[in-house]
């Protein structure tokens, strides 16, 4: 696949991630606040998703994993 095809497939997940960032900003004042703990939190959300656990933030643990993973990559890029 080419980049445009990947973008078309990933676009709905990216939109959901952005909407979740906005909700988290309103709920927790967090948004895109980056920390070195985001990768650990991504792992925790991934495990909770596998176990089918409820996420009290109102989104799936899979979506929370995606957002924490985005933040972990951004943190990594900022600290290269």
What is shown here, in short?
The chain has helices at residues 3-28, 38-51, 61-78. The protein has 80 residues and is mostly helical. The protein has one domain (3-78).
Question: Can you tell me about this structure?
Answer:
This protein has 80 residues and is an all-alpha fold. The chain has one domain. The protein contains 3 helices and no strands. α1 (3-28) crosses α3 (61-78).
What keywords describe this structure?
72% helix; globular; 80 residues; 3 helices
Number of helices: 3
Helix-strand pattern: HHH
Measured on Cα atoms, how large is the radius of gyration? 13 Å
The outline comes out as globular
Helix and strand content put the structural class at mainly alpha
Cα end-to-end separation: 29 Å
Helix content: over 70%
Number of structural units classed as domains: 1
**Largest sheet: number of strands, sense, barrel closure:** none
Number of strands: 0
Indicate the proportion of strand residues. Answer: under 5%
Low-confidence spans = none
Q: What integer is the average pLDDT? A: 92
């Amino acid at each position: 696949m080419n980049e445009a095809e990947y973008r078309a497939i990933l676009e709905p997940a990216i939109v959901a991630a952005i909407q979740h960032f906005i909700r988290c900003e309103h709920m927790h004042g967090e948004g895109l606040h980056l920390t070195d703990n985001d990768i650990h939190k991504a792992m925790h959300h991934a495990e909770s998703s596998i176990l089918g656990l409820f996420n009290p933030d109102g989104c799936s643990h899979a979506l929370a994993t995606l957002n924490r993973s985005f933040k972990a990559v951004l943190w990594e890029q900022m600290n290269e």
